[in-house]
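Please describe the entry underneath.
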Amino acid sequence: MYLNELLLGYKLGRFIFSVSFLISYFLYLNIAKVNFLNFPFTILVIYSITSFILLFYRKINILEFLLDIIFITVFIMSSFKSIYYLSLLYLFPIFFYGVLSGKKLTYILASIALFFYILARFIFIQDNIYDLLIPSFLHGFSFFIISFASISLNKKLKNQEEAIKKLEEEKKQTQLYKKLYELSANIAHEIKNPLASISGAAQLIKEGKANEKLVNIIYRESKRVDNLLKDFLTLANPYIEQPKKINIEKLIKEIIDLYVRDKNVNLNIKIKYVKINEKALRSILENIIKNAVYWSKKNINITIERKNHLLRIIVEDDGQGIDEDIKEKIFDPFFSTRHDGTGLGLAIAKNIAINMGGDIFIEKSENLGGAKFIVEVPMKE
């Protein structure tokens, strides 16, 4: 993560520097009344264009950094007086290549930079061997020290990234355990209430106070526990079956006939037949549509369409919508804002969609003002 940002920063910095240098040099030539179509200016133009093109190349390649060294050298050779300050620019490609790659090839890059520096001084300044010795030694020492430091920094950055990644994984694991504890507590709570009712009714029957009301309590609460356990098993083990061709319009209308009463449902079906896991899709649609029916005031919009290889189902209602502070929790098991809800319906729908290779998203409905659920699941061709 850090290294990718650093690479982008280096490329962007190089481009800004080259363009700024080009503009400054152009202004200098105008003030000095020198023809700007000279060799150094041409080199800067080429370097600026190359820097711009390399912005779109996001891999670490030693040739790119070698190109920087060559451009610096060519510019120095075209204006040898600049060697005393432009030779410092050799440090940048050496340092950044070492930091970004962590490879020992950095020392080779430093050696090439030193060779070009000595060559430029020897040819253009025509230093004798004694005058060349000390600056060459100092530059070489600087180049190799910066190489060593940059390689070491690369290792530290990678270790830091690994440590951060490990901490994030531990955090996720801690959150997972926390979710499991909450899930266990919620299951116990949901089962405890009907069991208490069954136990109380059974105790009264045992005392000889049997009547139809008590039997109905036992039946109703045992049915509630049974439905809860079925939902929980569906959450843990989503439907798995071979995809088959189905009439999705017919499926939607069956679900509407089952769950919709006294509400207006507007259907917009743009794709009629799909090849998909029918049981899984039915379970998703039942839970999403039941939720829309509960919260809507009067109107529900259902759109079925194709988006590339995905089946896209949009269910909108004119209810109160979903508050931003609970949007992240809405798919959590046992989280419910309904007084009679178990909080498993949307969790089941989300889990099945993910297991099918898709997902469910929530937005605010622009058409009706309430909630807008977007289901996207892959279709088989």
